[in-house]
Amino acid sequence: MRILRQLALAGALSFPAAPGLAQLVNDGATNIISATANTVTGDLTVGTNGSQTALILTNGGEVDVSGNTIIGANAGSFSNSVSVGGAGAVLATTGNLYVGSNGWGNQMLISAGGTVTDTIGYLGNASSNNIAVITGAGSVWSNTSDLNVGNNGSGNRVTVINGGKLFAAGFGDIGNGSSSGNNEVIVDGAGSVWTNLGTIYVGSAGSANRLTVTNGGRVRTSAAIEVGRAANSSNNVAVITGSGSIVSVGGSFRSGNSGSFNRVTVSGGGRVEDSTGYIGYIGSNNVAEITGTGTLWTNSGTLTVGDTG
User: Fold this and answer.
1) Pairing verdict, β 218-221 and 246-249
2) Residue 22 binned pLDDT confidence (cut-offs 50, 70, 90)
């Protein structure tokens, strides 16, 4: 990916950013911030109307934004990127973070101990095919409120890999809105964790959205997980596969809340742990499949198949 090549250049070139400016990099340009702290008053935009705009934070480079951070602001803004790489590299946003807000094909990379913080995180806000990758031990994307992956957008993907961490204090929503389809969160590998304090929705009001936990990845929520939340939420999937892959739910795990034709698959030694389990809470034709040696779905309370569905 282009963003990875840009990160490799971080030690070779640096453009100092002027504090207080709402645009640290012009459309189509690249700005590398290394070992300096920068303050943006108001919103920070990376890619307002153009493409191939890149902001790279490395070697302890820091940007503090008092408003929102927007990567790919308008419909004509695509393939823009932000990279936060290395211990001490920080993008701290007081407001919300948008990776793709009307623009498409935008990227955010957090690697090698970099940190991104915000209030509400949006990956694909009325836009499609945006990507966020959190990779490497110490790499963190932290949302003090909600996380939205595909908010009336499609084909958006978050990947947590190689020990990366994803956190949201509010709800986590994969596919919110009737036009939100084929959005995905992947948690891959030992040490890779998504922690959510609120409910995780896989297909809040959309279809064909997906949560994949594999190769020892973990997802934790103190609330619930609902696969197919609304009546128009169909064909959404949660897959937990591979030894050491665990989904821990403080409340209920529902395959089909109000939606129909949703599926939960636990395989290859994966595990689901919850308080109560539902297959078809209100919706119909929902499925849970548990297959393979060592694979387990454990309910500390009840398991209900077809509550009112």
Assistant:
1) parallel
2) low
Instruction: Give tens-digit pLDDT for 184-218.
Output: 999 999 999 999 999 999 999 889 999 999 999 99
- Yes or no: say if 44 and 93 are a contact pair by the CB < 8 Å rule: yes
pLDDT digits (tens, 9 = 90+) for 54-86: 999 999 999 999 999 999 999 999 999 999 999
Residue keyed to tokens 């040696």: 293
Q: Which residues pair with 151 in a beta bridge?
A: 125, 176
Rg (CA), the chain: 19
pTM value is 0.92
Residues contacting residue 5 through CB under 8 Å, at least 6 positions apart? none
Burial class from Cβ neighbours inside 10 Å (0-12, 13-18, 19+) for residue 261 reads: middle
Backbone dihedral angles phi then psi of residue 8, each to the nearest 5 degrees = -65, -25
Phi, psi of 185 (to 5 degrees): -120, 130
Identify the H or E element spanning 2.
helix 2-8
Residues 6 or more apart whose CB falls under 8 angstroms from that of 285 comprise: 256, 260, 261
